[in-house]
Design brief:
4-stranded parallel β-sheet, 0% helix, 52-stranded parallel β-sheet
């Protein structure tokens, strides 16, 4: 033990501690009380589980450098600890704990290997092992390895820049130099100098603390796994968060962020960048993004991007509360679940209107919220091929950039285990179909900027007792529905029903609107209110076409239906027995969808208290008349 003095052990080859051997000093100021241990050519530094290396005081520094490996017993410093294994690994001297009563160790021990204010690790092999992680109690951390990195932190930890400098004692007993380790600022399985690496995994968990990722610069990020290396960041203690201020990346590995409470991706002013995740999927076992906020929320800054390229890429976000979306760009499927909250856009409005930024780009998108999805003005912007969305106590507002199909979407991601592996470990969102609001009189707004809309029933069960519900869109209570295809000559094709209990339904296409098979629009004008239960179908530059078995229905005397087409209107069944119906075929005809080639059919095409018909050409045909049980009628045909 040396009081306020420097301790130095420098060996030509190995430094070995046996029994209960201890090196201890104390530091009362910068440059005092450092510990400097070095193993020379071909040598390692080896502590036993009972050995201690201690430098007390807030400026205490411990530096271990070995040409081969370092095996750690207990190292304690009030300041910084720096450990380098230039050709080997940094390992835990403690044995694994037997949790299966089979005399074979299978779990991490509880002993804290390194306790310090800051910790810097470098290994040519690995830091810790897949099962026997290095246990730490540090405030700041940086680690780099060609192999994997496996760390278990006791409380709060921040991944950021750490450097170390110790005093080298000469044979005279005086300080002759200050060996130092330069600033390192992230968790990385890759050597900067030559770009080599073995695809090592990165695992950082805390038992009772937050994880904050700061990093050092935008290029390196905060966590960077080389090649196929997987990443697991996990907070195990109650009410603990993961705060991401520097990027997380892997060449083609899987990334799992599992927080007991919340996960946030923030903008870091010093880097002029917002944090995100970047990986690539080369097959089902690679490149997935898995984010869980157990009891809290997931929040992205509007400049943050979660990205995985490749057609097999999957991303799944699950929050106990809400999800705020910056940018999510995935080649395959994306699933967002806000269990007790909403899914909202992080982007601000532009001149009190929707922004142009695409929040989610994917092949398939599955949305599920305990309250709402999007906002009445600030819609969630998407570029997806297939969509399903459900909101349990609020409305759904979506703005699609191109065209989409409402149908089946399922999501499965690879969950990274504490070993760094994903073998046999997945997390999934079951197949979901339709767009539905199931509470809170939630409305549904689905619009495209420039694309077609196809509404399919899907295969996922609907609400009991009618799982085969033939429904694509269903709004709860008085919730309204708008389906709109904007752009040039864009169409809406409904292959399944559009429903609301008593809301208004608008289906508007810049091109044509068609209802195939048994696809219906059904609602009710509730309580005699003129503000509910209307049906509004418009095909600006095309035609409206119902199949013979398609039904547009709204009950009660205040029910109204208006069909307006730039071309023709083909009528299946329109039933507003006590209400009013208006049909306009601006340059075309109003025709019966029923087959009346030889004689009129007996199906009643339009049932209403009053009916208004206007056509640029004809209304009905010479044999196949339009059948209308109505109370009051007016009809005009300009060319037939």
């Amino acid at each position: 033990m040396a009081h306020q003095q420097h301790a130095e052990l420098v060996a030509a080859r190995n430094v070995v501690f046996t029994g209960t051997a201890t090196v201890q000093t104390s530091s009362t100021g910068t440059g005092l009380g450092s510990i400097d241990i070095e193993a020379g050519i071909g040598g390692s530094i080896t502590q036993q589980a009972g050995n201690r290396i201690v430098s007390t005081g807030t400026t205490g520094v411990v530096r271990l450098v070995a040409r081969q490996s370092v095996t750690v017993g207990d190292i304690e410093a009030g300041g910084t600890v720096s450990i380098g294994a230039e050709s080997g690994s940094i390992l835990d001297a403690d044995a694994l704990v037997d949790t299966n009563a089979d005399t074979v160790g299978d779990a991490n021990d509880a002993d804290q290997d390194i306790t310090a204010s800051a910790l810097r690790l470098f290994a040519a092999g690995s830091v810790g092992t897949t099962v026997n992680h290095l246990e730490t109690t540090v405030a700041k951390l940086t680690a780099r390895a060609l192999g994997g990195i496996y760390l278990l932190e006791a409380d709060d930890v921040s991944v950021e820049g750490v450097s170390a400098s110790v005093n080298r004692v000469a044979s005279t007993g005086l300080v002759a130099g200050t060996p130092s380790d330069s600033v390192s600022s992230n968790l990385r399985t890759k050597v900067i100098s030559d770009g080599s690496g073995s695809g090592g995994d990165i695992v950082l968990r805390t038992t009772a603390g937050h994880i904050t990722l700061v990093g050092g610069n935008a290029a390196d990020g905060a966590v960077r796994a080389h090649s196929t290396g997987n990443v697991l960041l996990q907070t195990l203690g109650a009410n603990t968060d993961i705060i991401v201020r520097g990027d997380i990346s892997s060449g083609s590995g899987n990334v799992s962020l599992l927080a007991a409470r919340s996960v946030s991706f923030e903008y870091q002013a010093s880097l002029l960048a917002a944090a995100g995740i970047q990986t690539t999927s080369t097959g089902a076992a690679s490149g997935s993004i898995d984010i869980v906020a157990g009891t809290g929320s997931i929040a992205q800054d509007h400049r943050s991007t979660l990205q995985s390229t490749g057609a097999s890429a999957q991303a799944r976000l699950l929050a106990g509360q809400g999800i705020t979306v910056g940018d999510i760009v995935v080649g395959g499927q994306v699933g967002l679940t806000a269990t007790a909250g909403s899914i909202v856009d992080a982007d601000a409005l532009v001149a009190d209107a929707n922004d142009a930024d695409q929040d989610i780009t994917a092949a398939g998108l599955r949305l599920s919220a305990g309250t709402a999805i999007g906002g009445s003005v600030n819609h969630l912007e998407t570029t997806v091929d297939t969509l399903s969305a459900r909101a349990a106590n609020g409305s759904i507002f979506l703005l699609e950039a191109t065209g989409l199909t409402v149908g089946d979407v399922a999501v499965t991601v690879n969950r990274v285990l504490s070993t760094g592996s994903v073998t046999g470990s997945t997390a999934a969102d079951a197949t979901q179909s339709d767009i539905r609001t199931t509470g809170g009189n939630g409305s549904i707004v689905l619009r495209t900027v420039d694309g077609n809309v196809v509404l399919d029933d899907g295969t996922a069960p609907g609400p009991t007792p009618t799982p085969a519900d033939d429904t694509a869109i269903s709004a709860h209570g008085s919730g309204n529905v708008l389906v709109q295809a904007q752009g040039t000559a864009r169409d809406i094709t409904a292959n399944a029903d559009i429903l609301s209990t008593s809301g208004n339904v608008s289906v508007i296409a810049s091109g044509s609107v068609s209802f195939t098979g048994t696809a219906d629009i059904r609602t009710t004008s509730a309580g005699g209110s003129a503000g509910s239960g209307s049906i509004d179908v418009e095909a600006t530059a095309g035609s409206i076409t119902q199949s013979a078995t398609s039904l547009f229905q709204s009950t009660n005397a205040t029910a109204t239906a208006r069909l307006w087409a730039g071309g023709s209107v083909t009528v299946g069944d329109i039933v507003l027995a006590a209400g009013s119906v208006s049909i306009t075929a601006d340059t075309g005809s109003i025709l019966d969808a029923d087959d009346g080639a030889a004689t009129n059919d007996t199906d009643q095409d339009v049932s209403a208290a009053s009916l208004r018909l206007r056509a640029g050409s004809g209304i009905g045909e010479t044999v196949d008349h339009l059948e209308t049980p109505v109370g009051t009628l007016t009809a005009r045909a300009a060319g037939g």
